[in-house]
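Before the break, one more example. Copy the sequence into your notebook; we will annotate it together after we see the structure.
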Amino acid sequence: MASIPAGRFSRLWAAILPDPGPARLLALTSLLGSFGFGLYQSGSAIYFVRSAGMAENRVGLGLSLAGLAGLVFGILIGHLADRHGPRGVAIAMSVLKAAPLAVFPWVHAYWQFLLAAAVFGIADGGWSVANEAIIAGAITGSARIRASAYLRSVFNVGITAGAFCAGLALTADTRTAYLALFWGCVLASLTTAVSYLRLPRLPGVPPGEAPVRGLRAVRDLPYLAVAQISNVSLLSDTVLFVGLPLWLVSGTSAPRSLAAWLVALNTLLVVGLQVRAARSAETPTGAVRTQQWAFCALIVMCLLAGLAGYFSAWPASGLLVVSVVALTAGEMWGQGSRWALRFAFAPAGAQGQYGAAFRLGQVGPRVLGPVTVTALTSRWHFGGWLVLAAVFVAALAAGRPVISWAERTRAEPRDEPQPVESRQ
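Here is what the structure looks like once it is written out:
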């Protein structure tokens, strides 16, 4: 078998990894954190139903409430990251995540589950907020968007690997396998905490020198409006994992096995193309344009997916595949514009709390999205896909005016990313 020349391998490795320094170290923490989350997300719900004997709807409700708690408490954790430095907060959140994971195998009462899940949700949400604050503090300009794109590609790799390992535990379906699953989560969280020590310490901003007082981010209406519009693109996740599989089975003639291949196609495209897709958002003007591309792609996705219900197996399969390509393009462009706008409109010394406030825009897509997407596509069929497309049309129409409003109301010049030469 022919071997890859060392020089070519080095160039290939350099093209995959971000530049040496904080971005590369953050890629490691993202890989470890996402692997642990993939284990947890893919295996915890089934464990509590199968092994702990809890009702499915109660487990689902508890996990949803835990995720909501993570979004709400993220504001306070972001404020702490601004005051005391994001690296220390990220380490604390990584360690805190390990605590409920370690006790999950011994949880049997529902109130114990709710408490442990809430602690994990708050810690995981806080970890994400602190991690983004580290990006804002350790990386400047358009390199932030590029680093975020790398981290998201790595995140997809980690969460996929975690889900695969969780699948092995679920297949075994023994207490030993579930213990291995949770202890794997604990190990990943603690290793993530240790890996942060290799990053430079980022000092916090004392209260007297802070650019904003108190929790001003939650009162910054233009910023919150930008967050709401930008996060509409996150409905693509719900469509991919909930809407399309249910629609494929109940509303089209496509083979059921195609559902898994559609998710795999999305994962491969994101891992391979997210960095390239995010380049178009490396300037403020580019971020606005990229957001428009995202919503246009998601509108096309809705139309193609809905039309698949009118064709036989192979044409329907082709339409669904193309719709997932459009969905993935919208997802990647949407993420690029979200990162650019989230960093650009936040004051330099308050990236933590502003980043957490930006995440509040996820409440609609994450909490209401599954119910809305499922109801629309299952009851109204193609008409439901048209309504969903209308949601993206409304976001497309509102995006530029809302961003202009935020631009006019910034008290200080924005920390705008400047275009940089792309690495070849």
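The chain has two domains: 22-204, 217-408. Confidence is low (pLDDT under 50) at residues 412-424. Try to locate both features in your own notes.
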